[in-house]
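Complex record, two chains
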Amino acid sequence: MVKYTVEVSEQTFNQEVLEQQQPVLVDFWAAWCGPCQMIAPVVEDLAEEYKDRVKVVKVNVDQNRQLAVQFGVMSIPTLVLFKNGQEVDRLVGFMGKEQLKEKINQHLV
Amino acid sequence: MEEKIWDIAIIGCGPAGLSAAINARIRNREILIFGSEVCSPPLQKAPKIINYPGFPSITGEDLRQRFLDHAATLGIEITRKKIDSIYSLGNEFGLMSKQEMFRAKSVIITTGIVHPVYLPGEREFLGKGVGYCATCDGPFFRGKDVAIIAYNAEAEADARYLAEICQRVYYLPHYQEIGNLGPGVEVVNDKPKQILGEATVQGIQLEKGSIPVDGVFIVGAEVPPERLVPGVELVDGHYKVNRDMQTNIPGLFAAGDCTGRPYQLAKAVGEGQVAGLAASKYVADTAKIKSFKL
């Protein structure tokens, strides 16, 4: 199966997220978190559906604690949408696909 | 994760839930009820029911027992596991009970009336220090100070876990007979009034003072509908349903007191029946669509 999401790390975050021209949705997750497992296929679907408009990446907070601290992530799943290197929206907790699309679409006009 | 996909998961084992289960079972659906210790405390406490047709003057407890017996004769399974959240995953639902996940094609919510109480600051600091899942979010508070507002004994396991990784763990119990908290947990017998902070949580205001903490976990409180099912539409705190008892989320139904007034037995049983039949039809219809796609 083709994966449309990209795992990023502390080393690649700047290049893969902050320096991107197109909006980037970052999924902060961890293997210990049940709701993160639930939202994973939804995020993957979004990555495919928005593949030309929004880049979707994943950050494993267990392996990249500094990124969680840097972006004030204190609960997972947390999805943060970046535009031109700036955070423009943050969604904490599970959300259904339609809710997520609605949120993302607000930033694509 | 459990691999089995139930046809219908029913949350609640009161009159609406049992009526939904009985009707869905008769339609040959595989169902699992997630019930509480006592199915329908309000019915159990009713000294006399005077408006349920065919049973003049029956006691609530007698009728409740009859409902349970009826469900048992159909082989309906009731588990006492508490569902914390229900996620619509497109073609199916994921139901989380602590760290355990169940799967179902359709879900019927019959949770009765819930009275969620939000502390001032709770919603404002959600994800900024306030959390409901110690296992999920505990690691963010490694070496820090946290408070647990505990509404029942299920919080004790969370306290023991947090005590292993946090610096200080304050335990504010809202129930009697506290069990095993293990070492490193400080019980505070005081009432929380407000969660304090600026960008993130900095403390908790109590009736008789305050405690500086970095995180607050709220465990075992009644789960309000908007947290039980992210994205569900409500009207005045009740699930918004159509004539088939379907919510705005396809495959998700609600019945009984949780859909609104009148909070009456016959209405709950009737709505449960409609939901049970509608969910059964939904499961059959989606199966047809899937086989057509194949």
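Note: Chain B touches chain A through 29 residues (CB under 8 Å).
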